[in-house]
Design goal:
Elements (H helix, E strand, L loop, with lengths): L9 E5 L4 H12 L3 E5 L3 H13 L3 E5 L7 H15 L4 E4 L14 H29 L2 E5 L14 H21 L5 E7 L5 H10 L6 H4 L10 H12 L10 E4 L8
Parallel strand pairs: 1-2, 1-4, 2-3, 4-5, 5-6, 6-7
Helix pairs in contact: 1-2, 1-8, 3-4, 4-5
């Protein structure tokens, strides 16, 4: 494979079993990264590995890794560092929110969302931090426009709370990372054409809760997940060596227009 924008870099990538994680794994591997992925979904992760290797890329996969369990994350990070000798990038893609109107959402579902959208980012960053400090590495956290702006038609209070916290954590880690040469940035997607969103449109059409957001985008359609992956690629690469503490919004302009 030709030298790429991530040539020689070892990239930890969470949630490779499908959607944006799969697309990101394919793109990063095509740019020369050694992708070390994890997921709970063994079948989905295996398909991602097949696709990456068929295209000539390098990828390892650990399944199942429950990012809600510190011991699982610790084992995944340690094995990657031992096998590959270094960790250059941590890309926190995985998330598992539960949606409901604020007044109706259970405490259980709220806490589940916080654990599976915020705490998993904290754990991975915490455990990868010493390895990243050795090489002056980078962290890319996937946030969301939900952490920036409310949505009247989409009941997402728990998701918004978690992703807003991810964006705040990103800024603070960037500040603390300066002393260690660690860059920390985030990408905030809008409504992307992932399998759950496409299934929602297939079932509900124009009545889909995300429709009022999507209609404000530059295309009037959900975004292609590759757009998020390309933003993450920039932040993970040496091209962004002077970029830390920033958030790139990839939402087709929906948050910017009334």
């Amino acid at each position: 494979m030709a030298q790429g924008r991530l040539a020689g870099k070892v990239v930890l990538l969470t949630g490779i079993g499908g959607g944006m994680g799969r697309v990101t794994a394919q793109l990063f591997a095509s740019e020369g990264a050694m992708v070390v992925g994890c997921d709970l979904n063994a079948e989905g992760a295996a398909e991602t590995v097949r696709l990456v290797e068929a295209a000539g890329g390098a990828i390892d996969s650990s399944v199942p890794v429950d990012l809600g369990r510190r011991e699982d994350v610790e084992r995944w990070v340690a094995e990657a560092a031992e096998k590959h000798g270094r960790i250059d990038v941590l890309y926190n893609n995985a998330s598992m929110p539960r949606f409901a109107p604020f007044a109706a959402q259970s405490d259980e579902d709220y806490l589940f969302t916080i654990d599976n959208e915020l705490h998993l980012v904290w754990r991975a960053c915490h455990l990868a931090w010493p390895h990243l400090a050795k090489v002056g590495g980078a962290i890319v956290n996937i946030g969301s426009v939900a952490g920036i702006q409310g949505a009247r038609a989409l009941p997402q209070a728990a998701h918004s709370a978690a992703k807003g916290a991810v964006l705040a954590l990103t800024r603070q880690l960037a500040a603390e990372g300066v002393a260690h040469g660690i860059r920390v940035n985030s990408v905030s997607p809008g409504v992307m054409g992932t399998p759950p969103i496409l299934a929602m449109y297939e079932a509900l059409g124009e009545n889909a809760p995300v429709a009022p957001i999507v209609e404000r985008t530059i295309t009037g359609k959900p975004g292609d997940p590759i757009a998020v992956a390309y933003a993450g690629l920039y932040l993970a690469s040496d091209e962004a060596a002077w970029v830390t503490g920033t958030n790139i919004v990839v939402d087709g302009g929906a948050h910017a227009f009334m």
